Every structure is written in C-alpha cells, then in structure tokens.
C-alpha cells in the first residue's frame, strides 16, 4: 500500500490501525470493524 521503501516500517501501520479502532470501534479492545486476519493483516468489515 505504501510501497516497498516502507516494508520495514510496519509499526506505523499498527499505530494508525490502533488510532482508527479507538475512534471507530465501540469496544476497541474487541474490534468488529477493523479485524486482524493472519497473513492478510487487516480487514474492514462492512456487513454491519
């Protein structure tokens, strides 16, 4: 998504996802909108 030059900067993505969860989720510690999926990373659930 950001390009190969940022391949080792995954901590930034984790921080941004955490901030999004804090703003969007009713229970950020049990996310239902932005879900972590192994080998895919994150999935946006829109079937709410």
Classify the helix fraction into a percent range.
25-40%
CATH class: Mainly Alpha
Number of DSSP strand runs = 2
The SSE order reads: HEE
Instruction: Note the total helix count.
Output: 1
Rounded to the nearest angstrom, the radius of gyration is 12 Å
In CATH, what is the homologous superfamily? Winged helix-like DNA-binding domain superfamily/Winged helix DNA-binding domain
Low-confidence stretches: none
**Second rung of CATH, namely the architecture:** Orthogonal Bundle
* Average pLDDT metric: 84
Strand order of the largest sheet: 1-2
Structural class determined from secondary elements: alpha+beta
Head-to-tail CA distance between termini: 25 Å
Q: Largest sheet at a glance?
A: 2 strands, antiparallel
What is the CATH topology descriptor? Arc Repressor Mutant, subunit A
Shape: globular
Q: What count of structural domains?
A: 1
Strand proportion, as a percent range, falls in 15-25%
Written description of the protein model:
31% of the residues lie in helices and 17% in strands. Strands 1-2 form a two-stranded antiparallel ribbon. It is of the alpha+beta class and 48 residues long. The chain has a single domain (4-44), classed as Orthogonal Bundle (Arc Repressor Mutant, subunit A).
Provide tags for this entry:
single chain, 48 residues, alpha+beta, Arc Repressor Mutant, subunit A, two-stranded antiparallel sheet, 2 strands
